[in-house]
Amino acid sequence: MRLWRARWRVKSAWLTISCHDFLPRLRGTTKLVTPEEAAALRDDPRLFWTLSTYAPHRDINGEIDGVLVNVVDMTTLKNSQDSLLVSNDQLRQLSQYLERVREDERVRIARELHDDLGSTLTGVKWAIATAIERAQRAALPADAQLANASQLLDSAVDTMRRIISDLRPSVLDHLGVWTAIEWYAGQIEERTGLQCRVALADEVAAIEVDPERATAMFRIVQEALNNCVRHARASRAEIRIRCAAGAVMIAVEDDGVGIGDDALVRTESWGLLGMQERAARFGGDIALSRGVKEGTILVLHMPV
User: Fold this and answer.
1) Domains detected in the chain
2) So what's the pLDDT on residue 68?
3) What's the predicted TM-score (pTM) here?
4) Contact predicate 121/153, CB 8 Å
5) Cα→Cα distances 55→17, 21, 26, 74, 163, Å
């Protein structure tokens, strides 16, 4: 056996267990004691981390006459873990920043569509209507092309309004998140045929939510309902909103094909990661599970 000795001395250390706690544990066992992690300060001075494993050494009478200690330098691993935590935090901050940028961009595009393109389409519609009216007054034959252009323009205006609503529904800014959720459920039902029911508890209706938190809630419900249509192939969806212990709980349940174990693991396939990031920004969380009989249940829990 070769004795190894460090080329530097330990100046001080912070242990997670005291001698008074450690010795009784050592006396009562013949096996290795659970490894203990400790921080120590080298004489340099530099901080390093160790993982120590202890085992009693007994004499021929079975009495403890020493301790066998195995010490592993964990400094590199601890530094890597710290770096990983910092990187994850930076990525989370970047994700939140990009989400704010995307939301601001949605607002800007919706405003420009409404103010610029909307005004242009309104002007064209007025010009076509004026031309049709003048032709009627002059008893001229009806121009089929003008009538067709008017119908196409009406369709373009409807499309523009739908795009603006998808980008940033005005009801969210003017009437609040609860009305916006009810409005969007109606929009989904009208467009796709998915039957949407919203159950809003009385105590929730009186809660005022700040704009950024309201946007996060609305986008999460929006993504959940879109998933009901795109992936779950559901015919019905129910949104239950209630308040408990200073937090809002929103459950979106559908009667679709359900979710398999692989999908619960591969959360990105359901866009769950993006929803989790939105919720985490405000101290909330997302849970995804199977329904009692069929379908999927998504639950958002967010402090208010």
Assistant:
1) 10-73 (no CATH), 94-165 (no CATH), 172-303 (3.30.565.10)
2) 77
3) 0.68
4) yes
5) 15, 15, 7, 20, 70
